[in-house]
Amino acid sequence: MKDPRKVWNIFASNYHLFRGTPSRLWLDYAFETLFDMTERLSAKTADAYYDTIETKLKQKEFLPRALYERFNIEVLATTDSPLDALEDHKAVCSSGWKGRILPTFRPDPVVDPAFPGFAQNVAALGKLAGEDTASWRGYLAALASRRQYFKSLGATATDHGHPTAKTADLSEQKTEWLFGKVLAAEADAEHQELFRAQMLTEMARMSLEDGLVMQIHPGSVRSHNEQILARYGRDMGADIPGRTDYVHALKPLLDRFGNEPRLTLILFTLDETTYGRELAPLAGHYPCLRLGPPWWFFDSPEGMRRFRELVTETAGFYNTVGFNDDTRAFLSIPARHDVARRSDAAYLARLVAEHLIDEDEAVDLAQDLTVGLVRKAYKLQRTGSRE
Questions:
Q1: What are the chain's domains?
Q2: What kind and span of H or E run contains 215?
Q3: Contact status, residue 187 vs residue 195, Cβ threshold 8 Å
Q4: Which residues make beta-bridge pairs with 213?
Q5: For residues 256 and 230, is the Cβ–Cβ distance under 8 A?
Q6: What is the rounded distance in angstroms from the CA atom of residue 258 to the CA atom of residue 157?
């Protein structure tokens, strides 16, 4: 179907299906605050919505930079392959605009042997970095070089989307053998997983050296719908949460770096059952660990409430990183942050009402959960910002 108005009318006619979902909250917020549409979207109002949105999106006030400033965004980060030349980031930096658009180092294409074209990607990495990536040491040097390139354009973090949280700490001899095996496409699924596990530990070591904050978000069983995968390719939806072990999986990495306060490792999860049992105790104990906010399926009022209730008594507030969202929908950014702030405020109000914290502490925490913890965790402080 190529007529966008017909597509919109189908969506509007089925808008009731979103009742009670965070998508409905975000959309209603954007419709009202950005487009001044207060009558509910439906088949009856579909054309009026379409015409209004189409008209406004053509106005200069809806250009990305204008919206960035209107939304009062401090920092917007992209996730980028090590193979990306980051030309768009260079253009922003050289434009004189004051907005902070930072790259984030996402090495999946060159650290995951199951990634399509892995060997070719590793070779391309070597060309970009001027290193011999056919060797283990050259491969590591190339990764370190690209991390430095990302840092030169403002990056403060890395991002790792592995199937599991498994880590390893192999000898150099064993790792060299394993690297040769995955590069030659001779590794079975078990060896591929072991290589990914080793690379998480290698990335932690590099983060300790170059200061980049490390994020891990495992547990997504990607492309679960085979027909969608066959028709549209990978990363087009049908990603389903899976069970994730953190206690045993992270131990090799934590044995080596867990007590290192100079390392910041932020954990995300799609497995809510780990909040109280695994993640909160881990983050409450190890100096390097922080808990990312409720993510993806749990980026919602109920998901946020459950997160705070399950982790706060064990990990506290200050072993979390406040709220940061990963939306691809630019217009949803204010709505998503508004939901997070209201959810945190409701939780803080309950603690005050139950005399678990004082009101002045709740005021401080509201500020920290909104901006303070995020600035500190991701090393985004500016002069005069409170930590």
A1: 1-62 (1.10.2020.10), 79-271 (3.20.20.140)
A2: strand 213-216
A3: yes
A4: 157
A5: no
A6: 18
